[in-house]
Automatic annotation (TrEMBL):
Identification of the protein by name: Uncharacterized protein
Keywords: Membrane, Transmembrane, Transmembrane helix
Transmembrane segments: 12-29, 63-83, 90-108, 128-148, 169-190, 210-231, 252-272, 292-321
Length: 340
């Protein structure tokens, strides 16, 4: 079994490979190449298979080019430091890198677009592939942060029941995407004008096929069921029927990091969308009669924010329940004396 130092170096090497790949791709784009680069607008896809004319882009925008190179260089320095020595500062930097990469990946976009694309809706696979790569990088840096931080006591085998308030928030997090998303979208898919006007319903139908609409309707609430793992035994111990893993403790970061990132993405999307909607309302681009006629569409903005908030509270409850204690440094005479 690998020691803690060996694990840290292994994950630092994996993070280094990710950073090197991303830097090489960005430098290739800056040199004039356009493989895997996309110029698609996410709301109006024209020729997504070709990156919407990516080959005709002469000057690369800042963030896909030099901006990403600067971020990559900073991450490379972090990886080099992490490879040589552990510490709280390295762990904090790795956590910051993980959050940055996962926010840039915007998992909520992947949650909706990949099922719709598999169901036949036109999709920008270059953009989706780049986001998946960023999500993988975020997961790698989160693992490096755990390996580089101070040693902690291992988890005690067995299930730790979460507080009752955590369960209640978890059930709310499961119910919200069903009631606030799947039900109205299912009705619209069946041509029922629930909370929308006739023209808006026709616009919704024109924007998606039956299979894509079914995927968009069902995937979010089905994915939302995973939040139950934060309050059930299988979220702390792998089920016994799983080969090799059955009965083993679930690494807490494997549950906390994805849940926290999705919660942050949901809240951010809901708040930003609400701010833009309010700005359009104040500017007169949207009127109160239009809001009343399409109240169900407007309400989804609140659903996203509430869904993220309930998931965030549930994740906090899981983190508090499964929190390990920091292991005392046995080289410190005071810490050693306190153990006697």
């Amino acid at each position: 079994m690998l020691g803690r130092s060996a694990r840290r170096r292994r994950w630092a090497a994996a993070c280094g490979a990710f950073v090197a790949g991303e830097l090489a791709l960005r430098l290739y784009w800056l040199a004039g190449g356009r493989w895997a680069y996309t110029a698609c607008d996410r709301t109006h896809l024209t020729d997504p298979s070709g990156g919407c004319g990516a080959d005709r882009v002469g000057v690369l925008p800042f963030w896909p080019g030099w901006g990403s190179v600067a971020v990559g260089a900073a991450l490379a320095v972090l990886v080099a430091v992490a490879f040589r020595r552990p510490g709280r500062s390295v762990a904090a930097g790795s956590w910051a890198a993980a959050v940055l990469l996962l926010v840039a990946a915007f998992p909520l976009h992947l949650l909706f677009e990949i099922p719709a694309a598999l169901a036949g809706r036109p999709a920008d696979w270059r953009d989706l592939g780049a986001r998946l790569a960023l999500a993988v990088g975020g997961a790698l840096f989160a693992t490096l942060a755990s390996a580089a931080g101070p040693p902690r006591e291992p988890l005690t085998p067995g299930y730790r029941p979460v507080p009752r308030w955590t369960r209640r928030w978890a059930y709310a997090a499961v119910a919200l995407p069903v009631v606030g998303w799947a039900v109205p979208h299912g009705l619209w898919l069946l041509d029922v004008p629930f909370g929308v006007s006739g023209p808006k319903l026709a616009e919704i139908h024109d924007g998606m096929s039956s299979m894509a609409g079914l995927a968009i309707t069902l995937v979010p609430p089905l994915a939302g069921l995973l939040v139950l793992g934060l309050v059930q035994r299988w979220g702390q111990e792998f089920p016994g029927w799983l080969p090799f893993l059955g009965g083993r403790p679930v690494p807490r970061l494997l549950a906390i990091v994805p849940a926290a990132v999705v919660a942050a993405a949901l809240i951010t999307y809901g708040l930003l969308s609400s701010a833009l909607f309010t700005a359009d309302l104040l500017a007169g681009k949207v009127t109160w009669p239009e809001i009343r006629a399409g109240w169900a569409v407007t309400a989804t903005l609140l659903v996203f924010t509430a869904w993220g908030a309930t998931l965030a509270v549930t994740t906090a409850g899981y983190a508090l329940t499964t929190r390990p204690r920091e292991r005392p440094d046995t080289r410190d005479p005071m810490a050693t004396a306190s153990l006697r």
